[in-house]
Amino acid sequence: MISRWSDAVITEAREYREFPGLFKTLYFGGGTPSLLSEETLEKIVMKLREIFDLENLAEVTIELNPEDINKAKLRNFKELGFNRISLGVQSFRDEELELLGRRHDSEGSRRAFEMIREAGFKNVSIDLIHSLPGQSLSSWEYSLKTAAGFRPEHISCYQLTIKGGTRFGKLFSSGKLKETAEDIQREIFVRTSDFLCGNGYQHYEVSNFSMGEGCESKHNSLYWEHIPYLGLGPSAHSFDGAARWWNAGSVAGYCEELEDSRLPVADSELLTGDELALEALFLGLRTRKGISLDILKRYDGWEDASARLSALSLVKIIDGRMIPTLEGFLMADRLPLLLID
Amino acid sequence: MTGIRNFSIVAHIDHGKSTLADRLIQHAGLVSDRKFQNQILDNMDLERERGITIKSQTVCLPFKSREGGDYILNLIDTPGHVDFSYEVSRALAACEGVLLLVDATQGVEAQTMANLYAALEHDLAIIPVINKIDLGTANIERVREEIEVELGLDSSEAVLCSAKEGTGIEELLEAIVKKIPSHQGDAGKSLKALIFDAQYDSFRGAIISCRVFDGSVKAGDEIKLISFDSVHTVEEVGVFRLEREKRKKLSAGEVGYIIAGVKTVSDTRIGDTIVLASDLSPELLPGFKEVKPMVFSSIYPVERTDVGALTEAIEKYKLNDAALIYQKDSSAALGQGFRCGFLGLLHLEIFQERLYREFNLPVIMTAPSVRYKFVLGSGETVTVENPQYYPDPAVIVESLEPIVKVTLLLPDEYMGVVMRLCLDRRGETPQISYPVTGRMEIVINMPLAEIIYDFYDKLKSITRGYGTFDYDFLEYRKEDLVKVDFLVNGEKVDALSIVVHRDRARMRAVQICDSLKEEIPRHMFKIAIQGAIGGQVISRSTVSALRKDVTAKCYGGDISRKRKLLSKQAEGKKKMKRIGKVMIPQSAFVSVLKTNED
Q1: Inter-chain residue contact B553 with A336, CB threshold 8 Å
Q2: What pTM does this model have?
Q3: Contact residues for B61 (Cβ-Cβ < 8 A; gap 6+)
Q4: Which ipTM was obtained for this model?
Q5: Does chain B have fewer CB atoms within 10 Å around its N or its C terminus?
Q6: Is residue B390 located within the same domain as residue B318?
Q7: Strands A25-28 and A59-64
Q8: pLDDT digits (tens, 9 = 90+) for A286-299
Q9: A232 touching B, CB under 8 A?
Q10: B230 by DSSP, 3-state: which?
């Protein structure tokens, strides 16, 4: 299956060899990297280098779980050109890891991080999840402080998202697990920002913190700035500046389409000017760069609305840009609705 | 010579009335089997969805009996709700007999009884029909016994059928011919026709459904609608097949339509009598009543700028609904709108739903109110059906509210819960009787205001569908009434005000504050909701401030989904009404209807 999948990914990549623009980042994520043998990963990277001009890559990231890591693998990643690792730590509390159904423990995360550093990776991100059911503020702070203690260049702090249909979703809908109270979620969010900002990190996106501007995730920033990206593999989304399309979700379906010389595109959309503007609006308001006021000018009454948001300290207007405050980040899903009256 | 039989089908809901009607139509060959669409007579989407008939429908079925006689069977379908009981009575008055349909798996139910009474009142021949005999759970013997014991009818007369399978239809048609008497009219006499319905046609105006009792009518005749005293020239007469079918004339005993340049259905009255203009001593057929709206509500466009579109929509709607009355109205909170009068709450709901479906117009309707009377210090009596115009309490000497005589029919096991429901709603002097064993009738005087909200729904739910009720206006009675206003974030929302009995004011105010709390979405700030009599706050609730609203992840695959969600939310916001700083959804205005008492 893996070789069938990797052949399909390579076939798909060939179909997009004319994709416009220079690639500046490469990102292996979405759970798959852990499944790949070193040979397969090497094969894909080599082929991609053949197909695309990857001379200008500034950031080559791989997502890994602590249990996937050993010294030999890390050496291999390094040789393949990976220069950034995103490590799925999630928590430094073993009982929380168990609740999340993770296969590693906190000790495994510590060892993994040390090995990564020893292998010479200078750009590392740690992923954490907060607002787990039953998680206290102090329990979260323990994980957060432990993570920050490793001084990674980047930390992502995600609030637990409950999706219907998942194992977790069912536990919530059946009432076996209870969602963290909104006030506690809020407290966690605020304290996380305060703590990391007081310890050398900047809060550059709702859920993301970096040690200075150079350590922001260059790859994720593409999404937020509407720069074209090409996604390969099942369920992957791509955007070429005007259109967005996404692939079939099933691995078998994805492979079949490519084997029959068809693109595995499930659906696509050509974005109108209004849609692009709306995206720029809500994506920008999730980042500390904010949005240019020019984007707002298409909405009636935007001046009154932005004055209201400023008065509520949700945003600040600086140099022709609307920048969300921490309160603004907390209301990032609401801000666009308050602006496009 | 062709014989005529005029009949209606009456049944408890879901006992298969529409399916049977369809089967009769199919049997008569009016529609090819291939094109057959279920439930032909309920031709509004709304009727099909709710499983109720709102307008009367008629179909004229040709039939050749086994003995070789040619017949015309006129099936007159009737509405099935208390709001339309007058329309039902007029449709039944156009018949000589009814098919009383009973579900073989359910047996006789409350509505079956009520229908039987209505048929008996009109002195109609009754053919019991046991339907759904194809089902495994059918218990024909038990149903026969119920027909004997509970309905007092001869069960050996009952026709067995399965409308779904089409079995027994032939026997049923034979029974209609044999057991329903022919009409007693005289075609030689002067014209006398009963109007039992009217439908609007944009080319022809009102299409009047009528039953000719005496005489005949043809194109070119000058006719008079007695209650309007209006004279029209007949342009066309005919019968209803699935479409209109033109005829030379309609004679005594026949059921059909008249087109006579009558502009809209509001220029006709159900129950009115049509005579020739030359008739020097016209006489109304018995049973005519002028229907009066009982329930009033204001309607506003969600967008103030849509008031023109709303005006047009109401005018169009009115063309086909004589029972609706309306006049211009305005509210400080909601802008320009209309005050409308309805027969009852279902009538109101149908109106709202059709405005939305047929005119794509989202509207806000205020809590329904009855028509109150106030005697003022000056000696003047004012009539108020809109709480907004409640007089200054300081000048009110006497408050009067309409009382109705409510008649309820139910199996006696539900007596306790039904009595409690009535007494909780200020019912007085109940009279109880047992028309048949096991069934009881409660006649009780109640304020109309207490039954216009959800009394019908409550009655249905506590009697598991077996209870039915009907009401008639009785009198205006002196009561201690107060107006309760509601404030959202300190702003009075005039469209939410209600008039209520002083003893019930606090309870209603608490319920409404709670409903509003559920309906008003959270904002960036805390929203206080208060109910008040004059300056005195009697209830309050709070919508807590939104403290956090952010999704954790927004990467490549999340962007389209998020954009679509935002667009949808922005669209939803447009349907809300801004009152001060607060966005109030349409549903909040409706939520005051719910009483949540259990």
Answers
A1: no
A2: 0.70
A3: B24, B25, B27, B28, B30, B72, B73, B74, B75
A4: 0.93
A5: N
A6: no
A7: parallel
A8: 999 999 999 999 99
A9: no
A10: strand
Q: Does residue B184 fall inside a structural domain?
A: no
- CATH no. for residue B348? 3.30.70.870
Q: Which domains, and CATH codes, for chain A?
A: 58-224 (3.30.750.200), 273-339 (1.10.10)
Give me the sheet containing A321-324, strands edge to edge: A291-292, A321-324, A315-318
Task: Identify whether B596 is part of a domain.
Answer: no
Is A142 a residue whose pLDDT tops 70?
A: yes
Q: Give, for B543, the enclosing helix (H) or strand (E).
A: strand B536-543
Of B340, B365, B390, the last residue of a domain is B365
Q: What percentage of residues in chain B have a pLDDT greater than 70?
A: 92
Which residues, including other chains, have CB under 8 Å from residue A105's CB and lie 6 or more apart?
A94, A97
Cβ separation B547–A186 shorter than 8 A = yes
Percent of chain A as helix, strand, coil, to the nearest 5 = 45, 20, 35
Q: For residue B475, what are the domain limits?
A: 373-479
Say if the Cβ atoms of B548 and A331 lie within 8 Å.
Answer: yes
pLDDT digits (tens, 9 = 90+) for B385-410: 889 899 999 999 999 999 999 988 88
CA distance B544 to chain A (A): 11
The CATH number that applies at residue B236 is: 2.40.30.10
Q: Which residues of B touch A231 (CB under 8 A)?
A: 556-557
- B550 and A333 within 8 Å at the Cβ level: the answer is yes
> For A334, which residue in chain B has the nearest alpha carbon?
B549
Are B406 and B534 within one domain? no
Question: For chains A and B, what is the number of CB pairs under 8 angstroms?
Answer: 88
% of chain A residues with pLDDT over 70: 99
Q: Taking residues B300-315, what's their average pLDDT?
A: 87
Q: Do B555 and A220 touch (CB under 8 A)?
A: yes
B525 to chain A: closest CA residue:
A312
Domain boundary among B179, B208, B228: B179
| Per-residue pLDDT tens digits for B32-62 | 554 555 545 445 555 545 444 445 578 899 9
Are B386 and B454 found together in one domain?
Answer: yes
With contact defined as beta carbons under 8 Å apart, do A108 and A114 qualify?
Answer: no
- Contact across the interface for B560 and A336, Cβ inside 8 Å: no
Q: Which residue of A has its CA nearest to B570?
A: A337
Position B122 in a domain: yes
B288 assigned to some structural domain: no
